[in-house]
Design a protein that fits this description.
alpha+beta; Alpha-Beta Plaits; six-stranded antiparallel β-sheet; 4 helices; Translation Initiation Factor IF3; 2 domains; 9 strands
């Protein structure tokens, strides 16, 4: 026969250092000649690529996030007066010691703007597994307390599941807004960066059976 069942939640959280820094680089160009815009965009995007190449080991991934080239019209009319465009690149870096200089080098380029960094953990980070183990341990402690309150012990585990609330997926959090060449003028030696700690949380549901309670067999107090 199945014994009495105790259902509890276990929770855990910890602050851990980030493992990745993500930032966005956008180069732009404008001119009356569409071909000139395309040429400048290509050149400026290549310059950013050259800078990123120099920091090769510090960069884990770079991805083109968008290319735009569009006409600009005279107000109130249909005549094209000029063309503008931009190329956006998303960069993921893992060497935080080199990151400040990398951002300053990029921001110093003409018509380049930088947004970020946003700090984050890797998907499937070990920190998530560790905090889930702590949540299970917390649930077991609670279950033992409930069992002890009625003179019982944990018999066996019936179920362990993720609870709906919580999780080990921290949001990306940034340290800077956008900045460009003017703001980078005084940052020739690189920006001083302070990686933002990431909060990792987990909440689990634990269902256990317990041995037959003994307090129910005690007589009423005199």
């Amino acid at each position: 026969m199945t014994g009495p069942i105790v259902v509890v939640h276990g929770e855990a959280h910890r602050e851990v250092p980030p493992e990745q820094a993500v930032f966005s680089v956008v180069v732009s160009a404008a001119d009356r000649d569409r071909a000139v815009v395309l040429s400048r965009l290509s050149q400026r995007a290549a310059e950013i690529g050259t800078i990123l190449d120099r920091y090769g080991p510090a960069i884990e991934r770079r991805e083109t996030a968008g290319v735009q080239v569009y006409p600009e019209f005279k107000r109130g009319g249909e005549r094209v007066t000029s063309y503008a465009g931009s190329v956006a690149t998303t960069v993921t870096a893992t060497d935080f010691a080199a990151l400040g200089m990398l951002l300053a080098d990029i921001a110093a380029r003409e018509s380049a703007s930088v947004s970020g960094p946003w700090w984050q953990l890797r998907r499937g980070s070990r920190a998530g597994a560790d905090v889930r183990r702590e949540a299970v341990a917390d649930a077991l402690d609670r279950a033992r307390e409930y069992a002890a309150a009625v003179g019982s012990e944990i018999d066996r585990i019936v179920e362990i599941a993720d609870a709906e609330a919580g999780g080990a997926h921290p949001m990306m959090r940034g340290a800077f807004g956008a900045f460009g060449a003017a703001e980078a003028a005084d940052a020739a030696t690189g920006f001083d960066l302070f990686p933002q700690q990431q909060t990792v949380e987990a909440r689990v549901l634990l269902r256990v059976t317990i041995t037959e309670p003994t307090v129910l067999g005690r007589g009423a107090p005199a």
